[in-house]
Amino acid sequence: MRWIEAAAALGMAAVAVAGLEQSPATSQAQPPPTVQMPQSEGMPPVPAPVIPQPVQPPPFVVVVDAAHGGSDTGARLSGGIPEKEITLGIAARLRSTLHARGIVVVTTRQADVNLMPVDRAQIANRAQGAACLVIHATATGSGVHLFTSSLSPTGNSRFLPWPTAQSAYVTQSLKLESEIDSALAHAAIPVSLGRASVEPMDSVTCPEVAVEVAPLVGGHVTEARPVTDAVYQKSVVDAVAAALEQWRSDWKQ
Amino acid sequence: MISGMVSRAQKYIFFAMLFACVVMAAFLIRLRNRAQDRLQQQGTRAPADIAETTATAPRTVTLYVPNDLDDSLTAVERSIPMPADENAQARVLLERLMEAWRAPDSTHPINAASGVNDVYFLAAPQRRDRAGDEGQMAVIDLNGALAAAQPSGIEPETLTLLSMMETLHANLPTVTQVHFLVDGRPRDTLAGHADLTRTYMASEAESAPGSGGGGR
Predict the structure, then answer these.
(1) Residue A134 domain-assigned?
(2) Could you tell me if residue A199 is inside a domain?
(3) N or C: which end of chain B has fewer CB within 10 A?
(4) pLDDT for res A250
(5) Residues of A in contact with B73 (CB under 8 A)
(6) Is A186:A239 a contact under the CB 8 Å cutoff?
(7) Residues A100-152 pLDDT 10s
(8) Structural domain contains residue A73
(9) Is residue A6 part of a domain?
(10) Predicted local distance difference test score (pLDDT) of residue A109
(11) CA B144, CA A154: separation in Å to the nearest integer?
């Protein structure tokens, strides 16, 4: 008796599954109402063109990721200051500047906490940012180093492998890098461009650029300044914010 | 009684044979000592002999020396004697490159006494996006001292990797992929930034904007 009950239950479940599979057919049986155009005799009915509804543009969100944090101190900069402190300071300054310009900002961390690369990528991907910036600092080189993922660009698809998800956004990342490069050059800050493989950049699904701030080496037009210099940091942040404001009107193209 | 039984002739033969035994023993001991001396002399000369047989005439090689200030790699030609063995060639190339990093006027200073433990070659694994790539993968086992002395940052670490990849690929064109270990073990990053968990394509170094002057 119990076998029969079980078989009956299975049968009902199978019907339920079949019903689910048939749901598209059911929806076909009840098509959305269409307006019939006036037609001549003998011609098949032609559905009227569907008037497109106005689509709300996705919000312009910028994700700012202050690299390192917690036990991951990053590089040692001038005066023995750990990189994690400098990146957090620059990220906070950039967040305030972007807020003042009316741009929505999502940050990965606002305190000295441990954050795994996979968590950073998840925060960025959930925010569906129009631009994602990773802030780094180093004691080597001069000016600002801009890096995009070293992955080869690929077409966008519905499912992206986690380790190479950025490949679908590399072309846009390069455009964003170009905007930031122009803004920094306008602010007379030396810039170098490069491709690099740094976690979690390759797993992020938005146009992403790593902004690595190095000390300013004194030259003909520049005055020597350490990474910790507040005036230097402000000039970098202002230039990046100006580039993102420009990106707000360019990123959909 | 017994002496009376041994004839005088037998006595002469006995002493003559005893004398011959002593002479032969002395001769053999002398031969053994000579052989020992000869072996010892060969043992002390062995490394030099091997070097003479394996090192060939000086060859012009190209080293890609990084410059931290403008994020570029500069090709520098050197004439150095290269061993015949490919693994040894790779080690010599990388050691020469690291000498440039250690130089007092270096544009990419890394002050590590030793840099490379070894270089191994494997058949490059086929990749879906690189059909027909039948080159070799070089596995570079870096010394922990080099990783410890490496300045931390995306730019300096990336330049270090690109410089090694470009130098190997330029002088050993069959090297198409490069993987890095530190003290024989896989490691997440070189010094907190550049990813060492992945295998790099040698062509990445060629196409990197930093290669040959990406800075401005």
Answers:
(1) yes
(2) yes
(3) N
(4) 82
(5) none
(6) yes
(7) 999 999 999 999 999 999 999 999 999 999 999 999 999 999 999 999 999 88
(8) yes
(9) no
(10) 94
(11) 36
- To the question of pTM greater than 0.80 for the whole model, the response is no
For residue B132 the two structure tokens come to 């027909």
How is residue B198 written in tokens? 């992945």
How far apart, in whole angstroms, are the C-alpha atoms of residue A20 and residue B67? 63
B214: which chain A residues are within 8 Å (Cβ-Cβ)?
192-194
Q: Where are any strands of DSSP class E within A43-117? A: 61-66, 104-107
Across the interface, of B69, B154, B191, the residue whose CB is closest to A212 is: B154
CB B72 within 8 A of CB B213: yes
The continuous run of DSSP H or E covering B137 comes out as strand B136-142
User: Considering only CB atoms, which chain A residues are within 8 Å of B192?
Assistant: 68, 72, 74-75, 83
User: Which among B192, B194, B215 has CB closest to A192?
Assistant: B215
Write the CATH number for A203.
Answer: 3.40.630.40
- What's the CA gap between A185 and B215, in Å, rounded? 12
- By C-alpha distance, the chain A residue nearest B213 is A192
CA distance A44 to chain B (A): 49
Residue B200 has φ and ψ, to the nearest 5°, of -95, 145
Domains in chain A: how many in total? 1
pLDDT per residue as tens digits for the range A54-111: 666 678 999 999 999 999 999 999 889 999 999 999 999 999 999 999 999 999 999 9
Tokens 């307006």 appear where? A35
Give yes or no for a contact between A177 and A146, defined as CB atoms under 8 angstroms apart. yes
Interface probe for B, chosen from A198, A202, A221 (most Cβ of B below 10 Å), is: A198
Q: CB–CB of B154 and A210 under 8 A? A: yes
Q: Residues of A with CB below 8 A from B69's CB?
A: 141-142, 217
Q: Name every chain B residue with its beta carbon within 8 A of the beta carbon of A68.
A: 192
**What is the extent of the structural domain holding A163?**
61-250
Q: Which ipTM score applies to this complex? A: 0.75
Strand partners, B137: B122, B177
Q: Between the CA atoms of B110, B114, B118 and B123, what dihedral angle is there, to the nearest 10 degrees?
A: 10
Closest-CA residue of A relative to B151 is A140
Helix-helix angle A230-250:A83-100, to 10 degrees? 50
Quote the strand ranges of chain A, DSSP E: 61-66, 104-107, 131-137, 144-149, 191-196, 208-213
Measured between CA atoms, how close is A251 to chain B, in angstroms?
23
